[in-house]
Amino acid sequence: MTVSARIDQLQGGSRAGGSRLLPTYARADVTIVRGEGTRVWDSDGREYLDFGAGIAVVGLGHGHPAPLAAAREQLDRLWHASNLYRTQPAEELAARLSRRFGGADAFFCNSGAEAIETAIKLARKATGKAGVIALEGGFHGRTLGALSVTGQAGKRGPFEPLVPGARFVPPNDVSRLLDAVDDEVALILLEPVLGEGGIHPLDAEFVAAAAESSPLLCLDEIQTGVGRTGSFFAFEELGIRPDLVTLAKGLANGLPIGALLVRDGLAGGFVPGDHGSTFGGNPVACCAACAVVDAIDEGLLSNVRSRSAELSAALVSLPGVLEVRGRGLILGVELDRPAAAVVDACRERGLLVLSAGDSVLRLTPPLVITEDDVADALSTLAAALEGTL
Question: Is residue 51 a contact partner of residue 351, using CB atoms and an 8 Å limit?
C-alpha cells in the first residue's frame, strides 16, 4: 500500500467527502460564520447562544470592540517583526501581565501547548533536573512534551513512548503529592481547575503543599486565567504565587497567543538561544491581548462571580444533574447520562455547550454573559435534559 493510500484509509475517505482537513476533531455538522457578543450564527443563518466561547477562549464575547479596534489599528502599522528586535505591543503586554502577577518576565508563543513546552524546558534548565509531577486526569496539550505530562492514558497511549520523567498523583491528595517529590523532580505542574479532566477544582491546601515543596511550581492557567474564575489569575483565590504560570486561550480573545510568566528572582533561567518562537509576540495578537487585560476590571470580575452563582444555584435542580462544580465561569455539570447526547440536544435547540468526559457538561461562556443569557441557557438546557431522558 502506498503512503497516499494509507493516509486515505486513515482518514476514512474524508477526501471523497470534500473536506481537506485532517480528521483530528469530531466536528458537528455546523459551519460557524459570524459571531457577536454571546451569540454566533451558522452558514444557514441559525443563531446560537455560545456557552463554550471557543473552549474558554472568547472571554469578552465575539467581536468585542476593544481588542477588535486594537488589532485593526496594529494591522495598519505592523503585522510582524523578528524577535531579534523589540516591538512595543509585546513589551507593553509583558508589562501589563507582570503588574497583574506581582513581578514576572514573559515569553510569548502561539498556544497553550507551546507555553507548557516552554515551562518544562525552563524548569529543566533552572534546576538541572528532568522530573515532572502532574495530576491524574490533568491535561496540558497535545504536542509531545505537553502530552507527556498529561495524566490521561487514552490520550497518551497511541503516541508512546513519550518524553520520560513524568509521574502522576491524584488531585487533592497531599500525601501522595509529597511522597512523589524527590531529588529528581524539577517541576510540579497543576491546573487550578482540571478542565478536560472533568472540571475538578484543586483545594487550596493541596496547592499550598505544592508551593511549599522544593521543586518549581507551574500553574497551568490556560483555561482558568484572564478572569475566568472571578479573579485575573485563579491562583489569587488559592493564597499562593507560583514560580511559573502558563496562559493562552482567553488572552487575546480569539487571536492565537500563549505566554509563560516567570516570577522575579527565579535564577538559572533562559539565555539567548535557549528557546524561541517565530510568531511569538506577534504585534497584532499582543495589541489585542493588551486590550483584553485592560478590560478585565472589577466590574467584569464581579459579573463573572454573580453569573456563576446564578448558574450553579439553578443547575443543581435540573433533571439528571448529579453535581455542579468549578469556579467562576468554568463549570462542570455531572450528569446521570452520557454528556454527548445532551450536547447534541442543546445544539439542536440553539445552545452551544461542551463536554469534559463521558458524563460531564462543561460550561465556559463569555465572561460578559448577562442574567438574560443565563436564563436562556438554563431554559434550553432543561429542555435538552428532559428530551434525553
Answer: yes
**How confident is the prediction along the chain (389 residues), in pLDDT tens digits per residue?**
554 455 455 444 444 457 899 999 999 999 999 999 999 999 999 999 999 999 999 999 999 999 999 999 999 999 999 999 999 999 999 999 999 999 999 999 999 999 999 999 999 999 999 999 999 999 999 999 999 999 999 999 999 999 999 999 999 999 999 999 999 999 999 999 999 999 999 999 999 999 999 899 999 999 999 999 999 999 999 999 999 999 999 999 999 999 999 999 997 889 999 999 999 999 999 999 999 999 999 999 999 999 999 999 999 999 999 999 999 999 999 999 999 999 999 999 999 999 999 999 999 999 999 999 999 999 999 999 998 87
Amino acid type, 237: E
| Alpha-carbon radius of gyration of the chain | 21
Decide if 307 contacts 375 (C-beta within 8 A). no
Look up the pTM and report it: 0.94
Within 10 angstroms of residue 20's Cβ, the number of other Cβ atoms is 8
Same domain, 284 and 313: no
Whether cis (ω within 30° of 0) applies to the bond prior to 242 is no
Tally of domains in the chain: 2
Claim to verify: residue 323 and residue 270 sit in the same structural domain? no
Q: Domain range holding 341?
A: 3-62+298-387
C-alpha grid cell, residue 54 = 471557543
Q: Do 132 and 268 have their domain in common?
A: yes
Do 188 and 165 meet the contact criterion of CB atoms below 8 Å apart?
no
Q: How far is CA 255 from CA 57, 168, 231, in A?
A: 9, 32, 22
Distance CA 255, CA 284 (A): 8
Domain boundary among 295, 320, 335: 295
Q: Which of 277, 295, 313 is the C-terminal boundary of a domain?
A: 295
In this structure, the strands spanning 321-327 and 330-335 are: antiparallel
158, burial (CB in 10 Å: exposed 0-12, middle 13-18, buried 19+): exposed
